[in-house]
Amino acid sequence: MANYVDYFDSKNRKEIKKIYNDAFPKNEQIPFWILKLSSKSSNTIFKEIIIDNKIAGILFLIFDNDIAYLMYFAINKEMRNKGLGSSILKGLIKKYNTVILSIETKEDSISKKRKDFYLRNNFYQTNKYTKQNGVCYELLCSNKNYVLTKDKLINIYKKMTNSKLLAYLINKKFKLFDVNFIDNSNKI
How is domain 3-187 classified at the architecture level of CATH? Predict the structure, then answer.
């Protein structure tokens, strides 16, 4: 059974940062200090995942009512391929009616494996994409009937912080509130 500990209550902060830095390419990372400050928002969760008294992974989630955007999710390398990631995703989908996430659209084996993992775990292709900091992402969703629009995505991103200054910094660097949104759902 997984236990979730808020970042600021964790005794493993250095390990949380290491998992984050190891799991995500630099060009896909929001600076760690921004995640920490954003986690103080009433609409975000930044937690470590503990199993058998060991840090098993991390997640950073932005939520709005029954919709959640899984911005960062990583399982510790030593604990992968044991069903833990699938179990956590099932719990998130059960808790929130709709879970959205983005994955890079690179055509390498790691990206393909990551996408297959999410598709096996009840996520669907939305045929919607974003481009941020030169990286193209495909948006996946756990609710086949949810219609994701640019405005809905921007609204979720805006929930990342209650601080106007931090929102300004996030948008200036990452353009989250002026996202390049591509909808290919009508072209199928």
Answer: 3-Layer(aba) Sandwich (3.40)
